[in-house]
Design a protein that fits this description.
The complex is a heterotrimer of chains A (299), B (357) and C (235). Chain B is 78% helix and 1% strand. Chain B contains 17 helices and two strands. Chain C is of the alpha/beta class and 235 residues long. Classes of the chains: A mainly alpha (299), B mainly alpha (357), C alpha/beta (235).
């Protein structure tokens, strides 16, 4: 009985939605990390992740294995995030928030154009050691594969790691204090500027994991692929509450599943419209986000 | 009528009319000497300058931001395309009016949930909007022509205008120039309207909302309504610009409005100078001739224009310029010009004071 | 320990401090008194490096700290409890305390134990979020967080603000006790001149950014003119 349930159309859509949803969750989480610390919404977040994972892929081209590629991508992501904060974002603190929006949008344009110049705009794929073939049960397809399970595990692992880091370590405490009360943190000897850089590094790293998952999937990754994912991640983060990491993760899963149902029962072209409608409704009903702690905040 | 008076400036209307008229006539004169290719490029630049002006008004005067104006442009463009396919014989002025109104209505729909939002939320929301528009157009194939889009030939050059040309390529020259002149005239009307709006009651209220929303509320300005008006006007300009844009290209399709167009609009607005008429003109000129500039740059640096790098040069340069302008000269080229004038004036003043001693 | 010489600070066109010189020594409480807007907080914020002065010098011992960053001044051993106490509401009591320990090489566990013995209430509420604490408890937490790093200088900005008279009096006794016990240099900014002068050894009176009097606290406390015009102590 159980197996026919897993192969039912509903579960098909839920599994497919979750597989897409964990990607959105990771992007949403990465947006929330830097939103909390610097109140910047980084429109280049997806593009940065794409670029880092492309660099990781060039290592695979040289014959190195998947795990090494993942590590290289992460390292490049950390570096990229840190440098971006230092060079592009730091001059904008205290300026009107429009300036940071414009600069990150410009950065998005530069990264994608450079990536297309280096690697062309075609789709690239990272070959995973894990099988992408779906499980079968009594002849019926269950929309899960070893790779999809790994994808869930990796995403959950990263989220747990981020949660532990922020909640239980000294670094996490300093990061939170720097975001909540930068002046007080400085008076207590916390190097706030360094914390902001570390926050951007972490955030970029989380984004890179999302890009690597996309690139490892059967559809691969192309340079502007992360644009749509960034928008979905943004919607997820807003729905969950831009200052709530847990909300961002749950928001991502919800958006993933919702999109999958629009796609399955309505039209593939209208998935982005579905996302927009969810965003509008969420903002009208509860603008601070479903899981936000602060109530009545002006958004 | 009270509503109408609030968006029309009370004084110095004639001066503004003269200014806009002078620039329009000058540009029309230039179209007579430009080769047909340049005329076509100028037409595109004029169309885009209308969109830039609408965005510039939103950002510079009301302090809101939109990454969705390429979406409003698409709405105006499709309204024009669909109308042109079914009712090709109506006067052009009606088509422009229709595109403007439909652009405004789409702006209103987005504005209602957005006006309570601050910058980053608004930017993300409008981005989501612009990303949703092209797929919607793709979905309803029977109306929009789907992926291939719609084709129409509404811009026919009148006989009297054709008669002005003679020689080998008379028709080609006349068509290119007619297109350019038409776009320039529409842009001129749009700029005149905006010039008045800047100095109207609504324009002044907008500045106050941008600089200090608490104070604005205290003097009785309705914040959500003012912000909504700003958004609707901006979307109407984008709709009109989109209409002109597709009329001169005689086709509309979903790939004409990618995310990069939003980035391009933002770049041109910032580069020209946020919140100014001259900034939008400069932005339009840069757009019109950017391909020439880029190919010139490619030949200077020896980059093969058909290579990957050559093909992506515009994206790289626009993005870099956008970042550098925002970091180092946030008032754009128009701002630099103003500062230069101020500098020259103060140098003169110092000079006259020191010689006067 | 802390020496400020000829300090001038501008906020835009407004002069917040004008040629101010102050010295505070170990084992002594130096009260900075004056009305609202006299420049008391600005003085502390300049010492901590949060405000850049137009001219003047600031010394920690013999070392000039004018170009030292706020973080590094804190790491030198200057603990600054800002106006409004600076307790971070979204963190728990223990997290706030741990945060205080990063400025030094103190063992966090030992430091926490020491402060929980000193302030048993904080020990009872260690897992509570600070938003749930009372005003007095928040002040205790702010003090404990400053003390956990074993500082050599304590800068207190209006600690009595919003506290009941009895609590204020206890707090002042505690400040004096700490000052003597660990040879602390205490700079105490107060509008409540009466409470501050009760424990202070030295006092400086600021008025609209300038020093109008400085010296032994007893002398200042008994100066009729000062009491009347600047300290609001009229009997």
């Amino acid at each position: 009985m159980m197996s026919t349930f897993l192969a039912s159309p509903i579960m098909h859509n839920i599994f497919a939605g979750l597989a897409q949803g964990v990607i959105y969750s990771l992007v949403a989480l990465s947006l929330v990390i830097i939103w909390q610390s610097t109140h910047v919404l980084n429109f280049a977040q997806g593009a940065m992740a794409m670029f880092a994972s492309y660099i990781g892929m060039t290592e695979i081209d040289r014959g190195l294995n998947y795990w090494f590629c993942l590590v290289v991508s992460l390292a490049v992501g950390f570096l990229f995030g840190g440098l971006t904060e230092r060079i592009l974002i730091r001059p904008l603190y205290g300026k009107p928030e429009i300036n940071a929006i414009v600069v990150t949008v410009g950065f998005l344009g530069v990264i994608e154009a450079v990536a297309q110049a280096i690697w062309t705009s075609t789709t690239r794929n990272i070959a995973t050691p894990l099988s992408q073939i779906y499980f079968h049960d009594q002849g019926r397809v269950v929309l899960l594969s070893p790779f999809v399970l790994f994808q869930f595990g990796l995403a959950l692992g990263i989220m747990a790691l981020v949660a532990v880091l922020f909640r239980f370590t000294n670094l996490g405490l300093k990061l939170r204090a720097s975001a909540l009360a930068p002046e007080v943190a400085r008076l207590l000897g916390v190097r706030v500027n360094r914390m902001l850089t570390i926050g951007w590094m972490l955030s970029a790293g989380v984004g890179v994991v999302a890009a690597v998952i996309v690139a490892s999937g059967s559809f691969g990754l192309y340079p502007s692929d992360m644009d749509g994912i960034l928008i979905a991640g943004f919607i997820a983060a807003v729905v969950g509450g831009l200052d709530s990491p847990v909300g961002a993760v749950i928001g991502g899963l919800l958006i993933g599943i919702a999109e999958q149902f629009v796609l399955a029962y309505w039209s593939a072209d209208l998935a982005s419209l579905g996302g927009l409608i969810i965003l509008v409704v969420a903002l009208m009903i509860r603008p601070q986000g479903i899981f936000a702690k602060s109530v009545g905040r002006r958004v | 009528m009270k509503w109408f008076r609030s968006i029309v400036a009370q004084e110095r209307t004639t001066a503004r009319l003269t200014g806009v008229l002078a620039v329009t006539i000058l540009t029309l004169a230039i179209t007579f000497v430009l080769p047909p290719v340049a005329d076509s490029q100028l037409a595109g630049g004029a169309a885009i300058s209308i969109v830039i002006l609408g965005l510039s008004w939103l950002v510079g005067w009301s302090g809101q931001i939109s990454l969705g104006n390429s979406g409003f442009m698409a709405v105006g463009a499709y309204a024009t395309g669909i109308w042109a396919v079914h009712h090709g014989s109506t006067p052009l002025i009606f088509t422009f009016f229709l595109a403007t109104v439909i652009g405004a209505i789409s702006g209103l729909i987005i504005a209602i949930p957005s006006t309570r939002l601050s910058g980053p939320y608004l930017a993300g929301m409008t981005l989501a909007f612009s990303a949703a528009i092209s797929p919607i157009a793709q979905n309803y194939t029977s109306v929009t022509g789907g992926e291939g889009g719609l084709f129409f030939n509404t811009l026919t050059t009148p006989h009297w205008f054709l008669g002005l040309f003679s020689g080998q390529n008379a028709t080609i020259n006349a068509n290119a120039q007619w297109t350019a002149d038409l776009a320039v005239v529409v842009a001129g009307v749009a700029f005149f309207f905006m010039a008045n709006l800047f100095h109207s009651h609504t324009g002044r209220a907008m500045r106050l909302v941008r600089d200090n929303d608490v104070a604005a509320e205290l003097v009785g300005i309705n914040l959500p309504r003012t912000r909504t008006v700003a958004f609707v006007v901006s979307a109407a300009f984008a709709g009109l610009g989109g209409s002109v844009y597709v009329l001169i290209n005689a086709t509309v399709n979903p790939s004409a409005f990618p995310l990069t167009l939003s980035i391009t609009l933002l770049t041109l607005m910032v580069l020209g100078g946020i919140g100014t008429l001259s900034g939008a003109v400069i932005g339009g000129i840069i757009y019109a001739f950017s391909t020439n500039l880029i190919s010139h740059l490619n030949s200077l640096t020896g980059i093969n224009p058909t290579s990957n790098l050559g093909a992506n040069m515009q994206g790289i340069i626009f993005g870099v310029l956008l970042i550098l302008t925002m970091l180092f000269a946030p008032h754009g080229i128009a701002g630099l010009g103003r500062r230069l004038r101020f500098f020259v004036k103060s140098v003169r003043r110092v000079a006259s004071v020191s010689t006067g001693e | 320990m802390i020496r400020v010489e000829n300090l001038t600070v501008n906020y835009g066109a407004i002069r917040a401090l004008d040629d101010v010189s102050v010295q505070a020594n170990p084992g002594r409480v130096t009260a900075i008194l004056g009305a609202n807007g006299a420049g008391k907080s600005t003085l502390l914020r300049t010492i901590s490096g949060l405000v850049a002065p137009k001219s003047g010098r600031v010394f920690f011992g013999d070392r000039s700290i004018l170009s030292t960053s706020t973080e590094n001044i804190a790491r030198l051993g200057v603990a600054h409890v800002p106006e409004g106490r600076g307790v971070i509401y979204e963190l728990t009591v223990e997290e706030n305390l741990r945060l205080g320990a990063f400025a030094s090489k103190v063992d966090i566990r030992e430091g926490l134990e020491k402060q929980y013995t000193q302030f048993p209430v904080l020990g009872e509420r260690r897992k509570k979020y600070c938003a749930t604490l009372s005003g007095g408890e928040r002040q205790m937490l702010a003090m404990a967080r400053a003390l956990i790093s074993n500082p050599r200088v304590l800068l207190l900005d209006e600690p009595s603000l919003g506290l009941a008279p009895l609590v204020t009096s206890e707090l002042m006794n505690l400040i004096l006790e700490l000052c003597h016990a660990s040879d602390l240099t205490v700079l105490l900014v107060e509008q409540n001149a009466k409470s501050a002068l009760r424990i202070a050894h030295d006092a400086v009176v600021l008025h609209l950014g300038t020093v109008v009097a400085s010296g032994e606290a007893d002398v200042i406390a008994n100066d009729k003119n000062l009491r009347h015009y600047y300290l609001g102590l009229v009997q």
